[in-house]
Amino acid sequence: MGRASVVRRVAAITLVSIGATVTLLAVTLVIGAYREDAGLNARSVRTTAEVLSVTFDRTLVRYQTPDGADHIPPDGVGYPAGLQAGQLVEVEYDAAKPDLVKVAGRGAYLTLMPAGTLVLFLWLIIGPGLWWLRRRYGTLFRRDHPQSLSPATS
To answer: Taking a C-beta distance cutoff of 8 angstroms, is the pair 107, 79 a contact?
Structure first.
């Protein structure tokens, strides 16, 4: 097997590995979001929260639980699209874990579009790359073993 065929084979395996890994991560993200929502919905309490800050990685809110304690979840609120600082918003939080909070009426289904789009565009890039490698250089994943000729026995 020549050096060029080894490089092509490694390139193909790398592309498929990256695609499979990112696809697995996206699926895990969606499953995790649904599991977290199921746990939160089982013990959810609704209240009004004030949006304190909106940044790229999280949106902080403040709300009060029935015992009078103020909560500002350090991880922010789930599904914060469209929120602005100073806004009052209806939220649902887990009665057992008050720092687990999401915007009321929103759920894990909102993770399907970004995760699905990521996977779709990733494979729209990887697929043609693999097709081009295969079309230009032939077989990618099978090793080329020279067939050994055994002496004929009589």
So the answer is: yes
pLDDT tens digit sequence for 1-21: 577 778 888 888 999 999 999
Partnered with residue 48 across adjacent β-strands are 90
Domain extents for the chain?
Answer: 3-137
Environment class of 73 (CB within 10 Å of its CB; exposed 0-12, middle 13-18, buried 19+)? buried
Question: pLDDT tens for residues 57-102?
Answer: 899 999 999 998 999 999 999 999 899 999 999 999 998 889 999 9
Report DSSP letters for 61-104, one per residue: EEEE-TTS-EE--TT--BS-TT--TT-EEEEEEESS-TT-EEET
CB 13 within 8 A of CB 143: no
